[in-house]
Structures are given as C-alpha cells and as structure tokens.
C-alpha cells in the first residue's frame, strides 16, 4: 500500500481540519487514509498545532477517550481583528454608501465572501466555549454571516422568516415591536427547525435598539430554548440600547455628521 | 529573523490557499511571511499541488507574470460526488420530511453548513472555467448554497429580493410568471448590486418549471448582464422544463409515489 511523506500528510490533514471546524475527527480516519501509525499522525498533528498557535491562525485541540480525536477551532489574533475592523470602517465610510433616509448601503459587504468569512471567524471565536446548538438569524442580509458563524462552530443554522411558507410545514409565529420604529412585526419559524431545550446565539448584520433580538428571545421561549449571546457586524451606538445589553460587535456606527460623513469605529472590544 | 520548517510552511500555505479559493496569491506574501527564498516556497507549493491532485481534493494553479502567483481551485472526485448525492438522497427520503401539499421539508439541509459546503464545491466546480463575475440567487433558502459557490469562485454574491427595502437605495424590479403555479411575482435588486456587462450564474435550492430562472434572465438584462449557467441542489424532474434547458443539479426529485415515498436519485451528470 502506498506511503505518504510527512509533508503530504501535513498538507492533507490541515485541509481536512480547516474544512471541518469544531468537528471532532477520529485519528483512525487519518491512520486509514495514510496507512500510517497513530504515533506518526500524532506527530503530524503536533506540527500543525504548533504553527497555527505560533501564527495565531486558530488552534487544534485534542479530545481524549473513545469518542476522541482532534478538532480545529477558528481564531484570529487581536491585531488581525483590529486591522480587519479598521479596514471595514474605511470601506463603509465611502460617501456613495449614504442613501436617502441616512442609511448606509452595506448589502455588498454582507454578501462579500472574503469579508464575511473573516467577520464570521471573529464572531464565532467569541462563542467557541459556549457549546452552542444553533446559530439563529432573521432573513435576509445577515444569513451569510450567520452561516459562517454556524460553520465555524460546527452547528446548524436556523433562519427565522418574516412570513410563513408552505414549504416549512407547521410554524410558530410571534409578534414583536421594532425598538427603533415602534412598529409591530411578525417572525415565524418551522416547528421542525429546532429541538426543544436548545442553546442558541443570534447573529445579525446590524443592531439598532435591539427589538429584533428581543423578538428572537421570545420566539426561542416558544421552543423552550435559550439565547446565550448575540453577535452583530455593525452596532448603531447612536440608538440607546433599551432592550438588550449583552452582545458583541465588530464596528460601531455613530450616525452621519453635519458634513455628511459616516462615523465608524472599531468596536470597543477590539480597540 | 525566525526560520520555519518545510512542514510548518506547508501547513500554513495550505490553510491560506484553502481559505482563499480562486484568489491569486503572490509568492511574495509567502516569502515575506516565512523569510524564505522564492525557490523554497515553490518547492512547498509543489508538495501541496501534488497531494491535492493525487487525492482529488481540488488543485493548485500557478499563474505566471507580474500579477501572477498561485491559487487554489476547489474540486471533488466523481466518486466523492456520487457518494455525497447518494447520502443526500437517503437523508431526503426520510418520511417525516413529507409535509402537507406533498412538499419535501428541506430547510434544515439548506442551512446545514457541512452539507452546503460540499454541495457548493460540487456546483462551483461546474463553473470554475467560466470567469464568472457574480453568483446570483433569490432570497431565502438558496442563500447559503449560493454564498458557498460565490466563495469557491472568489466572487461577490448577489441576492435578489422579493420586495424593495429602504436600505437598498434605488432598485430595479421586474415581474415574472412562476412556471409551475402561473402566478405573477416580483423580484427586485438594488442598482448598486451589480456592474453593467457582468457575467453571472444563478444558484438556487430547487428547480421546478424554471420560472424563477427566467425571471433572473430578465432582471439581468436590465443590468445589461448575462446569465452563463444555472446550478441547483435539487431538480424536480416531474415538472417538464418548458422554460430553461441548460443547468446542473445534484439530486433529481421524481415526486412522491403511491406508498408515500419520495423518489430521489443522484442527478444524471453524477451517475
């Protein structure tokens, strides 16, 4: 049977780990794949573990026991996070992004895979130790970001809809009050979407007063489930948060000044 | 300055390539990062290139010239694709998925990062050589899949909305006829979402008569842009395709038989 060099094994194992974040992979997968001893694979893993730690590119954890193995956990250095948040502020400050109603056009950002991948790694790393069961978002703009966070945490994404669809089967709907506009809105979720007694985090593109997050908390109660945390790409810090207190964000938005310039800063946690 | 071993460089370069599919990375990034000669990095790349090819895990391409470098292109062996399609059929055949109206509940599949990542690699590999500018989808269920395809092709995702939103600025809307129900529907897209003269592919969860795809073709015409191809996870082959002919799919759905069993098969291209 074919033999592989250490370099070849290291490249392949790295690829498999990176593509399966937070999933425990049994070492037998690698010993079978490479026709190699467990001790050989363990040495390969030490190489990968050490260099990822050294370069702050996430980490590899060993889980012992019968169901054990190794898993890759995403991560980024504080310096890289700051760089990313600063670069994002520069992109968002472009005056052409200000649209009627003093909104910032940021749809292209939310649908840019390179930006959203990094933002997903940053937000996921705030919840790596929480044993999350689901990452929840509300359609539409936050879906790719929530998907990346779910992928990095190795869990299922759940997308709450604005209206019920025939393809969702029985659904549970709640009404909630938008914190900034005061309007009543509806959100609904298929009863098949979530097991009871689950631990969830809520990921969204933008946080204003927190009305949507409050709606999510109510909806999760209907599923006898719990919200463990909230992460958003951009926090509108101009609007006082009456409704939720505990959340993480990457960029703070302080409105648009008299010169027509958007005020954007890396969020407190990343300064 | 610190030196790195070949194993360390191979692990790091693999991670960077995998995380930036279809993006050309200049070798200077690696020579600077590792304080190593170009010839050394080239040898590292040969290791990665050879093992990915050997294991049918995608490929590494070298682009020569001043703007040159290397890029990772995703891919999967025909055998692995077939395995994936067969596994997906088994998951989808679960009787609990049949919901009133004889629909198949598949929302959890569309929001499962492990499944959608692999499906994204399979669909992206059908369009790797097309020089696509945008991957287009219609909200909501196909967004994670379209996002994965966009990420693998290294391009921007564009999400067409069912209704116009204030945060989108000026939008372009079109009406189209749903091929299966005959109802008139609307889709709209921000004028900022796409440059004129772009080449696009359309990715969606499910294809029935192809009415949505026809709508996308009309919408793209308004942006003076062109549809190069279509990819869906599941093709309803029961409904005759009057509207579009050329597309790729992973699984064929042939309806629900008299015993109440969903008829699902790997699509023709993967048999």
TrEMBL record, chains A, B:
Which SUPFAM superfamilies would you find in this protein's record? PRTase-like, Winged helix' DNA-binding domain
Residue ranges annotated for the Bacterial purine repressor N-terminal domain, each copy included = 6-74
Q: Which CDD domains match?
A: PRTases_typeI (cd06223)
Q: Which organism is it from?
A: Clostridium tanneri
Protein name (record): Pur operon repressor
Entry keyword set: DNA-binding, Transcription, Transcription regulation
> Phosphoribosyltransferase domain location, by residue?
113-251
Q: Which domain of life is it from?
A: Bacteria
- NCBIfam families, sorted: purR_Bsub
Per UniProt, subunit arrangement is: Homodimer.
Report if keyword Protein biosynthesis is assigned.
Answer: no
UniProt similarity note: Belongs to the purine/pyrimidine phosphoribosyltransferase family. PurR subfamily.
